[in-house]
Amino acid sequence: DADVTQTPRNRITKTGKRIMLECSQTKGHDRMYWYRQDPGLGLRLIYYSFDVKDINKGEISDGYSVSRQAQAKFSLSLESAIPNQTALYFCATSVERGAAVDTQYFGPGTRLTVL
Amino acid sequence: QKEVEQDPGPLSVPEGAIVSLNCTYSNSAFQYFMWYRQYSRKGPELLMYTYSSGNKEDGRFTAQVDKSSKYISLFIRDSQPSDSATYLCAIGTSGSRLTFGEGTQLTVNP
Question: What is the pLDDT along chain A (115 residues), one digit of tens a residue?
Fold first, then answer.
């Protein structure tokens, strides 16, 4: 089984709808991340969490919210989806507590289309 | 100025060519340097990782770091069609999160 799973893998929705993307990991890592990827813009960090009680905004958090329900689960919500949120979304995990190097392991991605 | 800048490409080469992928960074505090490879419709995966200036080889891949110039490179020798992917550099400091470059799309033509 994959270490980092994302659901759904593909989603088409309409403007104004609330959408939740879910991420689960079996790696036992403390840190979890949400990124979006757009052609020509690379990976842009939306939110990250260093443990269950620590949530931080990334560079493009407007229009998004997150919930860290457990060490292994980190959900991303779009409260009212808009077309420019159409993108490929990745969840990533990294490190056990105290590790020096932030090697990140990525899920397979969710392709979201907002019409 | 972005903390990490990567040659955007795209890059198209014939099979067997030597490929050079490059990133520059602005913060001299960065301590470790990674290259991720991302195949189409997949998540990025770690390809190579190094701490120090100089070269690190892994098969056909060589990661090169020049801390004095704040410049890192990934060389691919004898490139294969299976190397066609997007390559992302990623740089970090001890205890903090990674910063990614924008990625370079590489196509190796048979």
Answer: 569 999 999 999 999 999 999 999 998 888 999 999 998 778 999 999 988 999 999 989 999 999 999 999 999 999 999 999 999 999 999 976 566 677 899 999 999 999 9
Q: Which residues of A touch B41 (CB under 8 A)?
A: 109
**B35: nearest CA partner in chain A:** A103
Q: Which of A25, A50, A103, A110 to mutate to test the interface with B (most CBs of B within 10 A)?
A: A103
pLDDT one-digit tens code per residue, A94-105: 976 566 677 899
Where are the extended beta strands (E) located within chain A? 4-7, 10-13, 19-25, 31-38, 42-51, 54-57, 64-70, 73-78, 87-94, 104-106, 110-114
Nearest to A42 among B95, B98, B100 (CB): B100
Which residues in B lie closer than 8 A to residue A103 (C-beta atoms)? 34, 46, 49
Residue among B27, B47, B79 nearest A104 (CA): B47
Question: Cα–Cα distance between A89 and A114 in angstroms, integer?
Answer: 13
Are residues B44 and A31, on separate chains, in Cβ contact within 8 Å?
no
